[in-house]
Amino acid sequence: MGAALLARARAVGASSLAVVGTSKNAGKTVTIAALCAALEGESTSFGLCSIGRDGEAIDALDGSPKPRLDLRAGTLIATAAVLLPAHPASEVVGFSGETSALGPIVFARVRAPGRFEISGPPQANALRRIALGLHDLGAGFVLIDGAVDRIAALRGADDAIVVATGAAGAPTLSQAIDAAAALVARLQIRRPDPALEMLAIPGALSLERASNLVAQGERRQIVVTDPTRIAFGGKTFLRLAERLALRCEHPLVPVACTVASLALERSFEPAALLRGVARATGLPAYDVYAGAAA
To answer: Are 101 and 164 in the same domain?
Structure first.
């Protein structure tokens, strides 16, 4: 599964791949782990960073168990200095100048296989600088555990995105599929046509503003800076996107989806979720847990 996701990213010329979720516990870390294993298997030097915190044993917010990050020697990571192991399992190779909720972020190289935690900055621009720093230190590919509302800086030709969705964030199968479809559609909003009239929206496009534009019969292109400036998603986004010519100056590049059919609260039929997400998004979908694709 990891190799297939890498192939999708490389097919669009990307040298970094961000994994974003439609909700919390959507399977992002499991997807990242599969990508790490694929890069290790092909002996590609890579770096790993996050917009938040990943790899901890227990979720700090709800106390639920979390997937761990098992990394091999040679992997570059960007993380809060306080999270590095006390023993010589890693070596600090640089200082990022950025700060996470847990303090200053350093660049380190894994020296011995083990489990690691990573913690990154909450700001998109800081995350971009860290990703570039990993490239400068020799990472041939960079993996980013992201958050959809904070990936505005990931809008260059070198970045691709995988959307993770699952049972944790939706009460029904159809809602999980709709969430993936809406997020992919939002990320894929086209650039404006300069030959047509447009209405530029400074800042965020709120649900109230979008609804008012629909009510007024607005026919101009509604232009935001990037997809993260659209402050609503799900079925609401899909409905309004049918009635407004939404455009953005800096589109993002989703290349695939991953699905997690099992959550603490509920489970969905795996094949139905996998096929439904592939059909609704028009992108290849992968079940990393089951080793299946659609």
So the answer is: yes
Task: Residue 80: name the closest of 47, 28, 116 by CA.
Answer: 116
Q: Name the strands in the sheet holding 245-248, side by side, starting at the edge strand that comes first in the sequence.
A: 198-200, 221-224, 245-248
What digits encode the pLDDT tens for the residues 232-289? Answer: 888 899 999 999 999 999 888 899 999 999 888 899 999 999 999 999 999 999 999 8
Provide the edge-to-edge strand list for the sheet that holds 285-287: 90-100, 103-110, 76-80, 46-50, 141-145, 16-21, 159-166, 254-260, 285-287, 292-293
Q: pLDDT tens digits, residue range 53-104?
A: 776 656 655 656 667 788 899 999 999 999 998 778 899 999 999 998 899 9
- Co-location of 202 and 265 in the same domain: no
How many independent structural domains does the chain possess? 2
Same domain, 112 and 142: yes
Q: 117 and 148 in one domain? A: yes
pTM here? 0.89
Look up the domain containing 162 and give its range. Answer: 2-180+252-293
Q: Which parts of the chain fold into alpha helices (H)?
A: 2-11, 28-41, 124-136, 173-187, 207-215, 234-241, 270-281
Tell me the pLDDT tens digit for each residue of 116-172: 988 888 888 888 899 999 999 999 999 998 777 666 656 555 689 999 999 988 999
Reading the block at residue 206, the tokens are: 């709120």
The CATH code of the domain that includes 75 is: 3.40.50
